[in-house]
Task: structure prediction
Amino acid sequence: MAILFATMLGFTACSDDDKVNISTVSITTTVDTTIEGLQLTGGTYTFENINTSVKTDVAYPLQSIELADGLYNVTFIGKGTYSQNGTSVEVDVQGVQQNVTVSGGSCKLELTVHVLNTGEPGFVIAEIFIPGTYNEAGKQYNGDQYVRIYNNSDKVLYADGLIFMESLQEVTNPCMQRSTPEPTPFISEWEGSICGPNPPPTSPWKIWGRSFRSPVNTA
Result:
C-alpha cells in the first residue's frame, strides 16, 4: 500500500507541474497608411511561441484567440483594397510585433500593419540609436550607437554592401544650418559599409542590427 500511495502521489505532482495556463488574446488591427479608404479584406495571423517554436495560424477578421501563456512573435500577412478613380486596387499588407507576453487569463494585442512595397525586395530602417550613453565616469560614450534594419519582404536578404553615412552638417546646430542650397547635396563625416566575409542572412519579416563602430551583431 505504501508503494502504491507513493506512486500515485508522484503522478499527481507531475500532472500539476505540467498544467498549462490558457489566456484569451483580443486582437485589434490598424492599418498605418496615407492611402485614403484602405480596408483590410483578408489575411492570416501567425502566433509563434518563442520558447516552444509552436505556430498557431488564425484567419482575419478573428478578434480573439486562446493561447498557452508564454512569449510570442506575431505576424500578419494579408490583403487590402482601396478605390482609385473609381477602380478597386488591391495591395499586400503586413505587420509584425515581437515579444508579445500572453498571460494573466486575458490580454490585448494592438497590431499595426503596413502596405508592402511590391517592387524589388529590400530593407527598411527600423531604428537608429545615435545619442549614445554615459559611462560610469559620467562622460559621453558613443561606441554603442547602432542601426536596426527590417527585412520588409518574404525573401531572405543579405545586408552586405549596405553603406551608412553620417552627415557633417548638424541640422540641430543653428550655426551649421544653411539658408541657401549647397553645391554638394550631402557632405559626410563618416562612412561605414557592411561587408563580409559572411554577414548573417536576414529572414523574412525579421530585424537585423549593426553597431556603427563595433563588429556586426544580430538582433
